[in-house]
Amino acid sequence: MNENLPGFADLGLDPGLLLGVQDLGFEKPTPIQAQTIPILLSGDHDLFGLAQTGSGKTAAFGLPLLQHLDLQARGVQALVLSPTRELCVQISNDLEKFAARTEGVRILAVYGGAGIQAQISRLRSGVQVVVATPGRLMDLMERKALDLSVVQTLVLDEADEMLDMGFRDDLDYILTHAAGRRRTWLFSATMPPEIKKMADRFLKDPQTLRSDSQSAAPSQLEHWSFQVPFARKYEALKRLIDAHPEMYGIVFTRTKAEAQELTEKLIREGYDLEALHGDLSQAQRDKVMARFRERSLQLMVATDVAARGIDVKDITHVVHYSIPEDSEVYTHRSGRTARAGKAGVSMVILGPKDTFRLKQIEKQAKVRFQVGTIPSGSAIAEVKLRHFFGKIASSEPRMDRIGELLQGLQPMLDGMDRDTLIQKLVWMEFERLFRYYALQNDADMQGRQAMGEMPAGRGHSEREDQPGLQVNLGTRDGFYKASMLQFLLDHSGLQKADLGKIILGDSWTTVQAEQESLDQIRSTFDGARFRGRAIRVTAHQGGRSNDRPAYAGPRNGGKSRPPFKRDYNR
Ligand code: AMP
């Protein structure tokens, strides 16, 4: 952080607020705090702040907002609007902490998904500061539980998110009803034209400040990209998690379904995580957040919407399991780590077709990606062992608790020397990992360029017991082996290396591959049409024989799938 910046004591804050900040352990103001606080304290200014999460903007507006309160007056004097419940709770918690050493400040967070009656009675009991989501605020206004006529300070936090979430009309309504306000402070991470319009409409002669280039945080954020074959994304994710035992992070997916599916798969494999997405009830989301915060979860798998505004301390990694649609989403996701000057890593797992989008993000978000390789099985084993022994070395056993127990076990340990004991411990702890990586082919994990020269099926063709699929297309449809391979690759997004043995019959083809690739083939082709005829993809176990494979179970495992209408008319 810049040494020339003023200290909190130089900003003009009241002693109570200064003590509150000191209690939080904030040593120096962040750049946006140093710039903003004196301006906002010095009179009735409107403000347009272009600030990312993690820049310290909550204190930048929160401290002046609290200082402007007239603690003798009645009614809601300050209103903060924010896009999500999570952010509302965070902001009001922060404000509570800033105001902890100031007598008589009453702050209330109101948001949807929680009982409205309790909120109404808290409002009736008298609060000076309300932090609200726009929807719930409108509800409360319509029920006459909240009167905005004496609001003096109005803050729009993450205004771009609020517009994205469709709150435009609500914001118009609210701003029009808080017409007596003297200060409007708008914060946004980005400046799309609608935000500009909104600022023109509602801000009077605003001061404009931007924190992005001056914040200490971004320089601490590393950006990495990992290119892998499409069907290896899941495996790549697992390796990245395994290779970073200290990881405490968020894995982002694009859809709720993907978040859920990924979470279920990883939990089945023993990973310590939960999903956070919009299909969960509010109570479920709160539970996940609480477990993550207290670190009983190592990871959360989240969609962009659900993870909006989350401020959890010391997140070490953000993993983009699906590359974000655009650079703004990338910035929002990555901003969950490297907060308040801490270090953080943002890792993108790239499918073969994502390179172009990565380049765009690089250009628009002005970041530079380092190109990483997915760690090999032996590298992961080494990291895990080092971590394990590091933990052993740093542990401090309470002999008063375990001494007697250990003595009782002595006969079992007699005759076992130190090395044997270590070997046994390591094997017990890591047997599953070692077995797993012994079966995996590290070369499979390389991206498109690295795979270039590899013959089809490398690393797979030897494995006769691989699962397979049968597709009802064959030589009768004009295919021969190479053209079938090409057909499968062209439409599924898979690469040669993803597929194992391909056997062609007159009216059918069997394909062997890892389950992920098979799933990809199934979801691409099953239900599509080839020259008007329906393509059927059915399960087929084992590729050892050239016999016509038998029908094996209902199509698509009996699960429903979105209809796929494509007709492949080659
Ligand atoms: P914000 O951008 O307001 O969401 O703040 C991001 C994180 O930085 C929060 O966890 C704050 O508690 C923390 N923070 C804010 N200001 C400071 C500061 N001056 N020094 C240290 N940490 C801070």
Give an overview of the whole structure.
With 570 residues, the protein is an alpha/beta fold. It folds into 4 domains: 204 residues, 3-Layer(aba) Sandwich (Rossmann fold), CATH 3.40.50; 160 residues, 3-Layer(aba) Sandwich (Rossmann fold), CATH 3.40.50; 61 residues, no CATH class; 101 residues, Alpha-Beta Plaits (2-Layer Sandwich), CATH 3.30.70. Helix content is 39%, strand content 16%. The chain is built from 20 helices and 21 strands. The protein has a 7-stranded parallel beta sheet, sandwiched between helices. The longest helix has 22 residues. The termini are far apart. About 8% of the residues have low confidence. It binds adenosine monophosphate. Adenosine monophosphate binds next to helix 3.
CATH topology name of the largest domain: Rossmann fold
What do the pLDDT scores average to? Answer: 84
Q: What is the topology, as strand order, of the major beta sheet?
A: 3-4-2-5-6-1-7
- Ranges where pLDDT stays below 50 over 5 or more residues in a row are 213-218, 448-464, 542-565
CATH evolutionary superfamily of the largest domain: P-loop containing nucleotide triphosphate hydrolases
Overall domain count: 4
Shape: globular
Structural class: alpha/beta
Bound molecules: adenosine monophosphate
* Share of helix, binned: 25-40%
E-strand count = 21
Give me the CATH architecture of the largest domain, please.
Answer: 3-Layer(aba) Sandwich
Major sheet description: 7 strands, parallel
Distance between the termini: 60 Å
| The level-1 CATH class of the largest domain | Alpha Beta
Strand content: 15-25%
